[in-house]
Amino acid sequence: MKILVVQTAFLGDCVLTLPLLREIKALYPDAHLSVLALPTTASLFEEFPSVDEVLPDDKRGADSGILGTMRLIKRLRAGSFDLAVVPHRSLRSALLARLAGISRRVGFSNSAGWFLMTRRAPFNWGTHDLERNLLLLKSLDPSFSPSKAVWDGVSATAASRSSIAAKWDDLRLKAGAEIVGLHAGSAWATKRWPEERWAELCRRLKDRGLTPVLVGGEDDAALSGRVAAASGAVSLAGQAGLGELKALMEKFSLFITNDSGPMHIACAMGVPVLAIFGPTTRGLGFFPYGDENEVAETTLRCRPCPGSLHGPMKCPHGHFLCMKLVTVEEVFSRAMRMRCQTLSF
Question: I need a surface site. Which of 5, 11, 77, 89 has the fewest CB within 10 A?
């Protein structure tokens, strides 16, 4: 049996698909499991033990447009897949599965291409996206019950640990220092807590004897560099790939972050997470998964921002209160309380 999972969404969505992949392999242990993914997230799936093959979908490059999509469909048809599981709810993803000639196609009832699915699972707002993804298997096997080891199989490779160890030596951090990870960036401007507040938070962490280390992708490097320069924190933003980011997470006692992909990686790695939410809310289902994790947010009638799961690039009302009302004092106090709770176990 050959199974294709179509997940060409953002990093966070891909991380939340990993438990689904593990459960598919448990349900069909002899199947060949392939994942169609963006080149930027391919390594996440390549390092996951349940996955046998990762197929690239460069939908913003070589596989874009009609000709690029047709070439991709031809490659998928050559794979002779028996089953497509489509957690990504775009019309394009549904079309790829249908035009690839895959006879059994499972997706969500609210997918833009729901009518192209042979089986549909309900999509419930308020349920975490990780658990929503697992409902796709329930539509295949009504007796399906997920295991409790949600993040089993998510770990850093030896090569990534070695690479981070070399970077760590170059930083010459104080031996035995307690490291707090931070992610100040986001692809969406309204998801970013103000830069000066990140700097002040880093200064307070340093005053408490902790070592703040900023992480993120290349797009976060400039912002993180400014925060580091203003606070004395260390920035590794833009200097670590996805594999190395997992290795970094193993060094953090706490991770403070905007609503972002690295937030979900921290959850998967078992790092306590304090997330700062502005235009998004827990009700959308993308909050940090796990009872030990928390969200710093404020109550406003305009939350969540309408029309987008991620929030717009600018505050529709021009006040940005959803982020401005989350104070440094609140985030720092909650971080210290979470740290004490972690140390008590």
Answer: 77
